[in-house]
Amino acid sequence: MEIKQGSQSFYIGNEEESEAEVHFVRVGESRIILDHTHVSEHLRGQNVGQQLVKAAVDYAKKENLQVIPLCPFAKAEFEKHPEYQELLG
Q1: Helices (DSSP H) in the chain: which residue ranges?
Q2: Which regions span the lipid bilayer (predicted)?
Q3: How would you label 30-64 residue by residue, b for 16+ Cβ within 10 Å and e otherwise?
Q4: Domain that holds residue 20
Q5: DSSP secondary-structure letter at 30?
Q6: Count of domains in the chain?
Q7: Span 11-29, mean pLDDT?
Q8: What's this model's pTM, rounded to 2 decimal places?
Q9: pLDDT tens, residue by residue, 39-76
C-alpha cells in the first residue's frame, strides 16, 4: 500500500477520491493543522490511519514544522506516541 503526498494531504488511492487520507492545512510558515483523517471500511484494522499520521509527522519533522492535531484520531495518535510530542505547536 503506497502512501502518496498531495498538496494538503497524505493519502492512499487517488487524491480526488482517496481510499484513506490525513488532511492538513498550513498555518503560516511554521505549522500545520491535521484536521481530518479518513480510512475506507475495507482498509480498517490494518493500521492505515496510524501510517498516514506517521507520514504527516515525518513530513513535519523534515520541514521543521509544528503540528496542531485537531482531528480526534490524530490527537489520539499524538497521545499514544511520546516521540510526537516535540512537534506539538
Answers
A1: 48-63, 72-80
A2: none
A3: ebbbbebbbbeeebeeeebbbbbbbbbbeebeeee
A4: 4-87
A5: T
A6: 1
A7: 93
A8: 0.94
A9: 999 999 999 999 999 999 999 999 999 999 999 999 99
